[in-house]
């Protein structure tokens, strides 16, 4: 397993690194504390990374979500779990709409954080139930997270190979692992991923999986 951990607080980095290496003994954890370091790590390791844990507020960001937007644009298939001290409903909704695979507050206990990481690695979109309830009450999120994704056209059809790639995306595989699992070139996999995004009117992996689930595809989310 390979992780990118982006946070400028040394104690949080140390604690999360220990958590990841305890949970996944073979884990390789690359750490960065600024937006520039995050960009460099994503460019160098993004294709082989299983999960990015990202603090939105690190030195070098221009807006609260600018770094997340840059990382998604650099690699739309990158799985990103946002770790933040901002827990208002608007922030939660915004990061999910931008393509994050989950949102956890920095106050979350170790057990819940471990479950959140596992859930996102399995292809789920994680929001703590308390935060989801608050967001729903505020009117930012409807009763299901699926409402965050654009409505797909009725009768969405994927080829068998596209369906295979979709299932691999749902399992949380990065592009390079999908290439190995399906014995396809990187260019071919990226072409299939782009076609899947178009089919569901999605801008990123999270929206594609939500759209696929709503369209009746049997995937975990």
Protein architecture, described:
- This protein has helices spanning 10-23, 35-45, 66-74, 89-97, 110-121, 129-137, 160-170, 175-182, 186-199, 205-214, and strands at residues 2-6, 28-32, 51-55, 80-84, 102-105.
- The longest helix is centred in the N-terminal third of the chain and has 14 residues, at 10-23.
- Helix 7 (160-170) packs across helix 9.
- It is globular, with a radius of gyration of 17 Å.
- Helix content is 48%, strand content 11%.
- The model is unreliable at 140-154 (pLDDT under 50).
- It is built from 10 helices and 5 strands.
- A 5-stranded parallel sheet has the order 2-1-3-4-5, sandwiched between helices.
- The chain has 2 domains: 2-146, Response regulator (Rossmann fold, 3-Layer(aba) Sandwich); 149-214, Orthogonal Bundle (Arc Repressor Mutant, subunit A), CATH 1.10.10.10.
- The protein is α/β, with parallel strands linked by helices and 221 residues long.
